[in-house]
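Title: Comparing notes on inverse folding

I've been comparing how different people in this forum approach sequence design from structure. To keep things fair, I'm posting one structure and asking everyone to reply with a full sequence. Here's the target:
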């Protein structure tokens, strides 16, 4: 079952910044978001729960240094993914 992707304001801001800094990674980002919508636990995403100040959120990998931070939520009665942030490993953690 495909999940709805809900980008937060912070995600939109960070994705624009990320695209400016790393335009070559746009195809990887697109593929990562498509996989996340289809099945957030596909092995290539390396989805994992976060701790500390990001407790309650999850992260997935979209390649060597691309991370997407998100939460599982309900939206209009359906399963959804709230996209919270994107960036390199050092930018998001």
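Reply #1:
Here's my take.
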């Amino acid at each position: 079952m495909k999940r709805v992707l809900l980008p937060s304001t912070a995600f939109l801001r960070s994705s624009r910044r990320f695209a400016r800094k790393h335009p070559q990674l746009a195809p990887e980002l697109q593929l990562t978001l498509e996989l996340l919508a289809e099945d957030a636990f596909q092995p290539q995403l390396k989805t994992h729960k976060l701790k500390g100040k990001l407790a309650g959120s999850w992260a997935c990998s979209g390649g060597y240094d691309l991370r997407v931070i998100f939460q599982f939520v309900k939206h209009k009665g359906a399963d959804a993914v709230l996209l919270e942030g994107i960036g390199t490993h050092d930018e998001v953690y």
